Amino acid sequence: MTAPSDALSRWTQFIAMATAQLTGRSSLRDIESTIASQKHLSYHVGSGSIKRTTLGRANQNLSAKFFEDLFGKLYARCQNGSPTHKFRFKRKLFSLDASLLDVSLKVFPQAEYNKMKGAYKLHIGLDHDGLIPAFAAVTPGKTGDQTQAKLMSFPKGSVVVFDKGYSGYSWHNHLTSKGVFWVTRIRGNAKFRVLERRVVNKSQGVTSDQTIEYTSDRSSKNNLRPVRRIGFRDAKTGKYYVFITNHFEWSAKTIAEIYKQRWQVELFFKWIKQNLKIKAFLGNTNNAVMTQVMVALCVYLILAYLKFQAQIGQSLQQMSRLIHQNLFAKRDLIQLFKPPPDREMASPQMELL
């Protein structure tokens, strides 16, 4: 099938959608006028002219898989030079979570979440080396968190942290068989018996440290391995938690600290919703939504890459604001983030003789 004569190149489409992310444009018309107003500055990026109708068709029809692949390549690039997580162990650490992206049910009937609202769901696997997304997917809101997690492939020896929304014991068993360690919270209705009790240091908030095995009929059929159960009370909040893990060597305190780091993925969702355009969409098809979200994540990874490589002290939010103000200027990005040199200013006051 021959492409239309006015079809956008993938590069031009990316430039247009990334511009929307970095400048906060909320409509196709806004993107068209913003880029058109800067033609004398934008030629050097190699982007063709952009019309809103052409961009709209591209987002509807050109497969979002292209930007999923770009996301994967950018993540691989970001791993070179990214800071490591705070724990002493050298294994990769990932946190899993998902967040709803609310949409109008009238505009997106295919994304029905319940009778009152529509929603898509953004699934993220956050790499704690650099706090960057390693895995990402956009699905209809009804898709279960664990359904998408099963499609993620973690490196052998890595550690994965997730909440009770991912509490599928057979999946936990599968991760163990693949050599992946995991930490989560136990279900309130879990049936088990204690196989072993360990001495605990209650001054660290640890109330129990046990090896357990599940006793339900389904557990027996699935040949589930024994797991470690840890009771922990947070000294600051007074809240009580019960963790389970397949790692038997680390201290109970370390397991609790690992789970606490899951909060970073929630901070990630908060950041992208506040600073990137993923709450209002420029098309009403699944492909258009996926395109916009994946481009947003690609922009995040580009900012992170700049930060890692140049060892920039500013936050990603400060960086995005500086780029917003200088988006079409042809200048060294690294110099943009460096503070201007201090200069001695001559006093305007006349000296009295």
Word description of this protein:
With 353 residues, this protein is an alpha+beta fold. The chain has a domain at 163-261: Ribosomal Protein S8, Chain: A, domain 1 (2-Layer Sandwich). The protein is 37% helix and 19% strand. The protein contains 13 helices and nine strands. The chain has helices at 10-23, 28-36, 39-42, 52-61, 65-78, 145-149, 169-177, 217-221, 252-260, 263-275, 286-310, 316-325, 333-337, and strands at 93-103, 118-127, 132-140, 159-161, 181-185, 192-197, 206-214, 227-233, 240-245. A nine-stranded mixed sheet has the order 3-2-1-4-5-9-8-7-6, with helices on both faces. A hairpin with a 6-residue loop joins β8 (227-233) and β9. α1 (10-23) packs across α2 and α5 runs parallel beside α11 (286-310). The longest helix is centred in the last third of the chain and has 25 residues, at 286-310. The radius of gyration is 25 Å and the shape is globular. The N and C termini lie far apart (85 Å). Residues 1-5 have low confidence and may be disordered.
